[in-house]
Design the sequence.
């Protein structure tokens, strides 16, 4: 009689285990406060985060390490200072969805008990007809002397800009290609694509269109994730490919971009 084969976990188990660990990465109030602080502050040091969330420095550092393991935050060294920022804006959507669930259950229970915290952003369900359109989350970044915004759902990730490998091409603003997680990605100078004076790129926004095609947009510093209200949008004064609206806010004008339109321009109208 042959020996029984050793027990093996299902193939999907390892992936499920990693996903579960990622969700556990959000299972602490201090980590949620750190994400909210980085959402508001853009890029902060450990000392600034300690002052914002009111937790001891060792605890903040430990939670930041967990958030980095999950891929939610990243850091860069500036001389002797380490600055942290949101690495993948999709984590803010996860937190917003969870807060929305809590808020809905609280409302369904008649508001009994402790009030649920306000969500980071409105959920994606259609609002009632008598309610104004909820603000949508956008990634806000600098482009020369101006600020631009892209919808969160169109930004796959934000990386630090590094000089790409140059390749011969006639595509608009193409600086070269860069290996991103095993795939070659075209890196385009967004200022050149929009006809703006080019500055020194600091960030690389990896954007996707509805067909799943991706491209890298070299831009300035990412300021963070902000809600842009629909009633703040205005048509652009001139037709610029990729610019769908101008948002009028407290800091002035904000160019609102669309990844589908931008990728069409980058691919020569494809």
Sequence:
């Amino acid at each position: 009689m042959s020996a029984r084969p050793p027990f093996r976990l299902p193939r999907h188990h390892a992936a499920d285990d990693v996903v579960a660990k990622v969700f556990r990465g959000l299972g602490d109030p201090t980590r949620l406060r750190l994400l909210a602080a980085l959402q508001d502050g853009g890029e902060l040091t450990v000392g600034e985060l300690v002052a914002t969330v009111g937790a001891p420095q060792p605890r903040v550092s430990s939670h930041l390490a967990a958030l980095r393991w999950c891929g939610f935050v990243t850091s860069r060294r500036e001389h002797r200072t380490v600055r942290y920022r949101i690495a993948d804006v999709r984590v803010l959507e996860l937190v917003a969805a969870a807060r929305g669930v809590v808020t809905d259950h609280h409302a369904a229970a008649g508001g009994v008990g402790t009030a649920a915290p306000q969500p980071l952003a409105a959920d994606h369900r259609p609002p009632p007809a008598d309610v104004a359109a909820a603000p949508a989350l956008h990634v806000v970044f600098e482009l020369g002397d101006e600020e631009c915004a892209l919808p969160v759902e169109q930004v796959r990730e934000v990386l630090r800009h590094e000089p790409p490998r140059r390749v011969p091409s006639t595509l608009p603003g193409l600086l070269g290609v860069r290996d991103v997680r095993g795939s070659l990605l075209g890196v385009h100078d967004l200022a050149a694509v929009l006809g703006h004076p080019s500055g020194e790129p600091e960030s690389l926004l990896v954007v996707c269109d509805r067909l799943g095609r991706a491209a890298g947009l070299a831009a300035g510093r990412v300021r963070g994730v902000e809600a842009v209200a629909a009633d703040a949008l205005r048509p652009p004064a001139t037709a610029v490919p990729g610019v769908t609206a101008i948002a009028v806010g407290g800091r002035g004008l904000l160019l609102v971009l669309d990844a589908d339109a931008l990728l069409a321009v980058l691919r020569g109208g494809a």
Remarks:
- The radius of gyration is 21 Å.
- Confidence is low (pLDDT under 50) at residues 111-134.
- Residues 89 and 152 are 7 Å apart (CA to CA).
